[in-house]
Amino acid sequence: QIAGEEEVTIFDKIVAKEIPADVIYEDDLALAFRDINATAKVHFLVIPKDRQGLTGISKSEEKHKELLGHLMITAAKVAEQENLSDGYRIVINEGKFGCQSVYHLHIHVIGGEQLGWPPTGIKEEASS
Q: Which residues participate in catalysis according to the annotation?
């Protein structure tokens, strides 16, 4: 499941306002909205409004530097807006083994409670 540059993702539809989302921040380059499958008290996503070919972080190139920086600054700004002053986690899932489910670059910001370490979801090898 990999979206091509021209394939429309669910996030493209959210940006286009074709499907609803609980949007908590928007500017010319980025959109932040609450994750419908929240893993903590606060869990939102930050996405580029124009993917620019960024189906995942592995597709990033030198030309994406400004956009990637803007997305990180946006994540921090919205985290502050969401009162995450005690801390939060930023996650970018990449590819099949990274559990990426939507092939439109997105940053998860997770917090609002004490998070564990290491992050959960690591599949242990079956013992023989």
A: 106
